[in-house]
Amino acid sequence: MGHKFAELAFTDAVKNIQSEQGSRNAYARMEVGADYNDSLGPNEAQFIAARDSFYMATVSDTGWPYVQHRGGPVGFVRVLDGKTLGFADFRGNRQYVSMGNLSQNDRVSLFFMDYSNKTRLKLLGRIHTIDPSDQDTLQKLSLDDRHRARTERGLRISVEAFDWNCPQYITPRFTRAEADLELSSVQAKILELEAKLRAKNAQN
């Protein structure tokens, strides 16, 4: 009951460490009341739609964790409803480590990052390959012709829980588009000052 992410992530071993470190009482309050943070709302949907990549963790049948970066055009991960994400899986180096792990254990952990605003969204879920006959869902995940990567499959994630993480220790980083947007006003000001300087020199 209570915060669904805490329910899944705070195992007995985790709670023991929290008790040893003095944070258990604060986190225990998250575990009471009705379930929440188990269905994506407008804020989560908007945040995910603005991302062009995420990190996905799986676990092998030998117990080793594996983290993979998945990227694409902005909005390639689609929020199909409050409990479901979907995305087109593009061909990469063809090692298929994540897909092999998922064939044995469908649990995934996702990190969606907004470095420029020091924001991250953590998500736990279960992932499955979309049946090729489900053309309605696959169509919702399709990309426009400008993205040339080959799509190997469609993947659907059933959301179990999510949590917004604190911004502490996230180093701000900017994409070229974000940097260009920030610099555009500076460049405009420089051009304005240069024009004024030329006009002043012409009068002398």
Automatic annotation (TrEMBL):
It comes from Sulfitobacter mediterraneus. InterPro entries: Pyridox_Oxase_N, Split_barrel_FMN-bd. Keywords: Coiled coil. Residues 45-141 form the Pyridoxamine 5'-phosphate oxidase N-terminal domain. It comes from the Bacteria. The keyword Coiled coil applies. Residues 176-203 form a coiled coil. SUPFAM superfamilies: FMN-binding split barrel. This is Pyridoxamine 5'-phosphate oxidase N-terminal domain-containing protein.
